[in-house]
Amino acid sequence: MYVAVKGGERAIDAAHAWLAAERRGDTGIAALSVAQIREQLALAVNRVMAEGSLYDPDLAALAIKQARGDLIEAVFLICAYRTTLPRFGSSRPINTGDMALTRRISATFKDLPGGQILGPTFDYTHRLLDFALMAEGEAPLAAPPPPSPPHRGGGEAPLPATLPHLDTPVPPSPLVGEGWGGGGTPAPVPHVTDFLNRDGLIQSEVPSDATPPDLTREPMELPASRPLRLQALTRGDEGFVLSLAYSTQRGYGRTHAFVGELRIGTVAVEMDIPELGFAVDIGEIEVTECETVNQFTGSRTEPPQFTRGYGLVFGQTERKAISMSLVDRALRWKELGEDFIGAPAQDEEFVLMHADNVQATGFLEHIKLPHYVDFQSELELIRRLRAEAITQREAAE
Amino acid sequence: MTSHTATFDRKTWMGLLARAKPERLAQLFPELPAHELLRPPEIGAVMVQGRAGGAGSAFNLGEMTVTRCALRLISGAVGHAHVQGRDKPHATRAAVVDALMQTDQAAALAAQVLAPLQDEERVRRSARAARAAATKVEFFTLVRGEDQ
Fold first, then answer.
1. Of A56, A90, B66, B95, which is least packed with CB atoms within 10 Å of its CB?
2. Residues A259 and A378 placed together within one structural domain of the fold
């Protein structure tokens, strides 16, 4: 029950003034600029863009600054802003096959056309604190090492159409011309799942341009289609999606996932412009894509084959994309004719209704707001029950 | 092919203008000719779609900020722009260039604005690709027991 209460304005104003001062911190220390956050805390920016469902690094950096680094609060700010924007339309589905790669690895094939590109990764670092970063004035950045010479072959990169199957020797990378600054725009690198697809060993994806449901516009309806689940997962809380994915690995809905391919890079965003009658690039975004290849021994309806889980997230967000693909796969049990074993990650309602951290925070934190009247009635109820209980006990004695 | 003789189709130049850094475009094309705004620059969002499995059903990935603008030059040429971000002068400038590219000034503008944008984009991309290539793993197989 809610009752309007007045008063407290002065206290609230004073609290907000103090919040602003605390946000700024010690004024003897230089203030952070939004550009510094955007450039130097880029992974936090990416997370806020992904979970706030709005690709705009400057706004995400501003939100982080305003939220004092509380990322969920920053996501909240972005979501609130996003709802004020007119929607111009939808893009064409981005083509991740044309991604300009900064990272691309596969855990299933060592020698794959296009090669394994580590990119700017934390992998293989020793996770030791680097005290040099703490010292005043950073050491100059090391120049990138020149690429190592090709082990075999060399010369011109082959055309993608001439790429051999995986069971034949691997050609030099078609990614870039060898050497520095050589060549023009690199040729697209094929998806790993395409190779398996060619042999019919993996469940294939059926292209569809049906207008996908949008849970930022319509309330979520269950049972959900896969497009709706993917939208909920890509904007879901990273911690929640990570934990669910981890639970599937530990046995709660085991799906035997391998990372068939993980790629990070930029893709063009293309939109049909009605005034023009054709599609144009409206910009370029960085995304992380993860495709899992999952062992599948067959079910009542499907033959033994590999199955797929899919993760696609704004920005360089590797942990989230891998998590998303595991949870996507676990949620597909029905269409693949698997059994529901009661695992949380298989439970669509459980996953989808609890993935949104702004929604969760709102409901969780509302219990700290005044509930004086609610509580007053609870208090009266407990007093009456106690009185009755005591009366009955005395009567029994 | 040198950039000075390059020709551009409308789709290509609109993409270049949309991806250009607003400051750089302003540097290359500082003075805006007189124009009438048909749709004043407006900030909004476009829902970006992906595909399940990279190839299957379309789904909504999230929105991105976009600024759009439509205008008419004195000559009557109409220009449109949809550019990433929230920079209204960027959208206006892109729409002006789009309109001018449909006039007899196209060749001059291509050399003055579009060719530098394209060259710089190409350099940026190949530098990044080269940096990625430097992190490419070269596997080599150690001598195995049965080889000895």
1. A90
2. no
